Amino acid sequence: MTELAIEPLTREAFAPFGEVIGTEGAETFPINEGTTTRFHALAIADPGPEGQVILSIFRGTRRPDPTAIRMLERHPLGSQAFMPLQPRDWLVVVAERPTTEALRCFRARGDQGVNYSRGVW
Known about the structure:
Elements: E1 6-8, H1 11-14, E2 18-21, E3 27-31, E4 36-40, E5 80-82, E6 90-94, E7 104-108, E8 113-116
Parallel strand pairs: 1-7
Antiparallel strand pairs: 2-8, 3-4, 5-8, 6-7
């Protein structure tokens, strides 16, 4: 079994795989008569040439430690975004190609999401 180093999730480190969704450094402006702050254009959804943008909510179960990665998904036709609904750290495992050597593991804070680019494993 190969153990993956856990890296902090930063925009720079995650750039080869997509975008980090977070409010740090975001363009902001007030809306709704000043009662709300809009964090503008945090990620760009890429539905691909024939796709459509949809939103879904998933409720997952915490996996046991240590977590074994047994499969990777790839969405060749469009991007895919994940944003936690609770303020808990979580792990993001990605790869540019489906090999053990290419795997990267990032620790996302509970206030960070990710938008996988089209074709990322």
